[in-house]
Inverse folding.
């Protein structure tokens, strides 16, 4: 059996195994386990798509929270029934076409991704005129502007009150289905000529340009694909937690994504998956540090904020002492796994 | 709008703008030398405000001792920040340095949450800053007048250090050409430490005045002044100290006047700075005082 064929079979087998595990959890897992797995699926989608811009294109985008917010609001407004919308919008009524439209979940997710992509295209002009720190601060600014608008445009977003009572469409099949799809598509993009061009731009933009690569087109494609999946993930998130408000989509969300891809390894898709999985699991496990601890003789009171201190420390320690993260720029692949298992 | 209200708002704008300017100087100096946006710079405002509060309430120091102590402590905090978060990454890719800066910012904010708690604290404003003077029909809080004065005094002090002393000469050299400066036998780590010290001292002064102006202090109070001050630094021309202050004035005035003239815009106030930023980057990336980019 040649290696290519063998890899295809192994991939299919791994997918079957993954969905078998999900099936078992869906039917026999506790609510808590299912919630962590759902979060994991969404985080994987977000981290892999975020890593496409930050890790492979090599530009520090600090605005994915904006695309998640756009996707979440778009998808939520499209799936709510007109009656629910009336219940939600007490202060100012929802503007006309949105107030009567209701579409199936899948259509709303696609629309969420599409809208996020449109916004990404619109801001790509100021964003890609600059590089480095400036690009970081412009995208950060965009994230803040979107949040300000979520608060201010009451007749579309219901302002600070947010949207409540969304249907809980999101389940393990949705979150992991989208995650698998994202990983496959992003991996294919990275291994195409477009992906190699992106890496060339990351290493040396001037040299890439001399080779005839147009940086703007390639960075833009990475940015748009990333925004699309961030938007879809936003839609999934909205229908998982069923209540959204502008406070969900602050810079804090971006910070969490940054931890995932830095720990996983900037520039490795499998690294991003590992980072997201670790974060979803570790984030829950770390709740211990904020809970009161009963030591028998006396009780240590829970310390709010401790979890974030640990997260910030992890980010700084990884970036200062182990800049490559778990995977560096390597990818997990079957050849490597098989060789490792033989030894 | 009648003229008194206009002048009132004008003075408020100048006062706010001078605060942005003070903080912007720190950004512009660090960026000039390290080419790094020091994301944690805004959090130094918060640090200074808390030290000042505890100086007054816990140790019952008079303000004229508590404030200088807070300013000095913040200066040392700036040096520590550089030593821990930035110095190990001098030869690393720029993206790593930025990520470290973001991590440091979140660390400072959440350490404050852990040790002090997220509940906002009132700032015990000394009585002498509470007075209101009436001048030509304008009701002015003395703090509003002191703020730009303090800013100008500190600005001239800083300009003296940068342009008339040996350390300042080394700082200017480092911002022109990092590598050559190192080859000239100048201890760059020391120069960078001095840069952080000076920038943090100004940020601390800004933070204390900010806390007196909006007498509430919380662990996240530094984020928005920080980001806006950075925009001011870009607007003025990054790397240019006088430009940073001018950028601060423009931003502060613009923000106050827009809200004063078009009250409906008040909820978009925080977006104003970013719109300015994008416009500057699109049309004049080198800012008001910046020199044209040459390679």
């Amino acid at each position: 059996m040649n290696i290519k064929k063998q890899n295809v079979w192994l991939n299919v087998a791994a997918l079957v195994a993954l969905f078998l595990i999900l099936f078992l959890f869906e039917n026999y897992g506790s609510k808590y386990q299912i919630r962590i797995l759902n979060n994991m699926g969404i985080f994987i989608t977000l981290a892999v798509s975020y890593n496409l811009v930050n890790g492979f294109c090599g530009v520090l985008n600090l605005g994915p929270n904006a695309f998640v917010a756009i996707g979440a609001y778009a998808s939520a407004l499209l799936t709510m029934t007109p009656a629910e919308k009336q219940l939600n919008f007490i202060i100012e009524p929802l503007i006309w076409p949105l107030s009567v439209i209701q579409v199936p979940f899948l259509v709303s997710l696609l629309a969420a991704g599409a809208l996020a992509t449109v916004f990404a295209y619109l801001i790509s002009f100021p964003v890609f005129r600059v590089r480095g720190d400036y690009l970081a601060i412009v995208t950060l600014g965009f994230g803040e502007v979107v949040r300000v608008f979520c608060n201010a445009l009451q007749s579309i977003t219901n302002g600070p009150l947010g949207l409540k009572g969304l249907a809980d469409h999101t389940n393990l099949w949705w979150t992991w289905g989208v995650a698998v799809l994202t990983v496959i598509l992003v991996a294919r993009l990275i291994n195409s000529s477009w992906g190699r061009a992106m890496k060339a731009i990351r290493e040396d933009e001037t040299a890439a340009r001399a080779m005839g690569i147009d940086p703007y087109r390639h960075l833009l494609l990475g940015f748009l694909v990333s925004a699309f999946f961030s938007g879809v993930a936003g839609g999934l998130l909205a229908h998982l937690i069923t209540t959204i408000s502008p406070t969900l989509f602050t810079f804090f969300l971006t910070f969490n994504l940054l931890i995932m891809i830095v720990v996983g390894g900037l520039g490795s898709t499998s690294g991003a998956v590992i980072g997201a999985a670790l974060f979803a699991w570790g984030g829950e496990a770390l709740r211990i540090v904020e809970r009161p601890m009963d030591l028998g003789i006396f009780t240590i009171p829970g310390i709010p904020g401790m979890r974030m201190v640990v997260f910030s420390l992890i980010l700084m320690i990884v970036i200062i002492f182990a800049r490559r993260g778990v995977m560096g720029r390597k990818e997990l692949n079957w050849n490597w796994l098989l060789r490792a298992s033989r030894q | 709008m009648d003229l008194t209200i206009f002048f009132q708002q004008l003075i408020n704008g100048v006062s706010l703008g001078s605060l942005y300017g003070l903080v912007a100087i720190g950004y512009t100096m660090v960026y000039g030398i390290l080419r790094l946006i020091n994301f944690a710079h805004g959090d130094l405002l918060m640090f200074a405000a808390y030290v000042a509060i505890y100086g007054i309430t816990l140790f019952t120091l008079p303000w004229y001792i508590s404030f200088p102590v807070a300013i000095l402590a913040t200066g040392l905090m700036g040096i520590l920040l550089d030593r821990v978060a930035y110095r190990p990454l001098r030869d690393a890719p720029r993206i790593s340095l930025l990520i470290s800066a973001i991590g440091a910012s979140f660390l400072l904010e959440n350490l404050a949450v852990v040790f002090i708690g997220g509940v906002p604290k009132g700032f015990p404003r000394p009585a002498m800053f509470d007075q209101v003077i009436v001048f030509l029909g304008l009701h002015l809080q003395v703090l509003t007048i002191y703020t730009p004065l303090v800013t100008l005094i500190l600005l001239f002090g800083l300009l003296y250090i940068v342009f008339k002393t040996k350390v300042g000469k080394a700082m200017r050299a480092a911002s022109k050409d990092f590598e050559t400066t190192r080859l000239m036998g100048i201890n760059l780590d020391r120069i960078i430490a001095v840069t952080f010290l000076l920038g943090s001292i100004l940020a601390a002064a800004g933070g204390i005045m900010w806390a007196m102006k909006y007498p509430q202090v919380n662990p996240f109070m530094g984020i928005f002044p920080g980001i806006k001050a950075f925009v001011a630094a870009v607007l003025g021309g990054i790397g240019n100290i006088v430009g940073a202050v001018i950028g601060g004035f423009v931003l502060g005035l613009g923000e106050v006047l827009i809200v004063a003239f078009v009250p409906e815009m008040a909820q978009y106030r925080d977006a104003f700075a970013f719109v300015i930023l994008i416009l500057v980057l699109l049309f004049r990336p080198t800012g008001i005082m910046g020199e044209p980019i040459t390679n």
Summary: The first strand of chain B starts at residue 121 and ends at 122. Residues 3-34 of chain B form the longest helix (32 residues). Chain B has a mean pLDDT of 89. Chain B touches chain A at residues 31, 35-37, 85, 88-89, 92, 94-96, 98-100, 102-104, 106-107, 109-111, 113-114, 117-118, 219, 227, 230-231, 234, 267-268, 270-271, 273-275, 277-278, 281-282, 285 (CB under 8 Å).
